[in-house]
Write a structure and sequence with these properties.
- It contains nine helices and ten strands.
- It is of the alpha/beta class.
- The strands form three sheets. Strands 1-10-9-2-8 form a five-stranded mixed beta sheet. Strands 5-4-6 form a three-stranded parallel beta sheet, with helices on both faces. Strands 3-7 form a two-stranded antiparallel sheet.
- Helix 2 crosses helix 8 and helix 3 packs parallel to helix 7.
- It starts with a helix and ends with a helix.
């Protein structure tokens, strides 16, 4: 696909892969460089000064993105009685108990979030080998094992995402769609980074937030000036 003069100019500027951008300039550059016809996802990658092989250096949690994610998250809830009715009223895509267990055991795992009431964990525990590898296993520390399933469903539907550091000390997260306004993407970026900073583990030593980059689905990765983001 032929590039416009503006895109050629921007591409030439990106030749210096060591250039550090402000987050606002990086977001705008990704928009200016986009040549595809679909609505790309903007992602952020954070390199942290942690070794997640040590329990006291694990970084994991949830963050609610104020501008949402631009995606429709399918939510399954394990609950009975009034709790099941509350989950359905809150917008859950599927609510059940043993019947939902059987569906998932049969391979129906097309969900972005699985939530359970505490009394259902005896049932959900039988799905550990299926849900665990997909990062879907309900966890009380993440608020996905809770008696208040209605709030958990609403949070999942409104832009709450999970983050977890990978073996190399990197955390990835989606910030929304390219079609979002720059202000909306910046708000999501700030919320995501703030959550990571607040989740700094006790075992982290030295510089915690080491590198930050943003990219789009089909675009380049742009390095963001860490000093602008977090003065550590």
């Amino acid at each position: 696909m032929a590039l416009t003069k503006k895109k050629k100019s921007l591409t030439e500027k990106l030749g210096d892969n060591q250039k550090l951008y402000s987050i606002d300039d990086a977001i705008q550059a990704l928009k200016d460089l986009s040549t595809v016809k679909f609505d790309e996802t903007i992602e952020v990658a954070l390199n942290l000064g942690v070794d997640p092989r040590h329990a006291d250096q694990m970084v994991r949690g949830m963050v609610s993105l104020p501008s949402g994610t631009g995606k429709d998250v399918k939510v399954a809830v394990f609950a009975r009685g009034d709790k099941a009715e509350a989950a359905l009223a809150a917008g859950a895509d599927r609510v059940g108990a043993e019947d939902l267990l059987e569906e998932m055991q049969a391979g129906n795992l097309d969900y972005g979030r699985v939530i359970a009431t505490p009394d259902m964990m005896g049932v959900v525990g039988r799905l550990g080998k299926l849900l665990g590898p997909k990062g879907l296993m309900p966890n009380p520390k993440l608020g996905t094992v809770t008696p208040n399933v209605a709030d958990a469903v609403k949070a999942a539907k409104s832009g709450q995402i999970e983050f977890r550091v990978e073996k190399a000390g990197i955390i990835h997260g989606g910030l929304g769609k390219l079609s979002f306004s720059n202000d909306a993407l910046r708000a999501n970026f700030d919320a995501f980074v703030d959550a990571i900073v607040k989740a700094k583990p006790a075992g982290a030593k030295g510089k915690y937030l080491q590198k930050v980059s943003v990219s789009s689905s089909m675009g380049p990765g742009l390095k963001v000036d860490v000093a602008e983001v977090y003065g550590n």
